[in-house]
Amino acid sequence: MRVAFFGAVAFVVACAVQTQLEPPVTCPEVTLNKSPGACDLITTQVCSDNNFYTISCQDDGTCSCSTNNNVTNSFLAADGETSYCASVTDTSQFHSLAMQCIDTQGLGLDLNP
To answer: For the chain, N or C: smaller number of CB within 10 Å?
Structure first.
């Protein structure tokens, strides 16, 4: 006796509310300030959203994010790193680090120099 199994395939269509993403924030000038054990990426002029931003990192890879000199959150840029700031050599990392700074909507900041 042969037993045949016929499975039913179900298709599920999920609908979501479409949201409009904001354009990336552009910052005309970002500088890198280094001191023993620390490195800071700082916008020295107001960005396109009328805010100033700072990403301050320590050699252990911990970084904090500030908007208009108010700390908004912290994150770990490198786990177990003992000289993280040695790898930060110019402002090119500003965008990728800013994406780890979480805004009020739970999204990384899309900041471009």
So the answer is: N
Cβ neighbours of 104 (radius 10 Å): 7
DSSP, collapsed to helix, strand or coil, labels residue 111 as strand
Q: What's the pLDDT at 79? A: 79
Query: Phi, psi at residue 93, to the nearest 5°?
Result: -85, -5
Three-state SS annotation for 53-94:
EEEEEECCCEEEEEECCEEEEEEECCCCCCCHHHHCCCHHHH
Count of all residues that appear for the chain in the document = 113
The structure tokens listed for 71 are: 């700390």
Return d(Cα 34, Cα 16) in angstroms, integer: 45
Phi/psi-derived region of residue 61, left when phi > 0, alpha when psi is between -120 and 50, beta in every other case: left
Tens digits of residue pLDDT in 39-92: 999 999 999 999 999 999 999 999 999 999 999 999 999 877 689 999 999 999
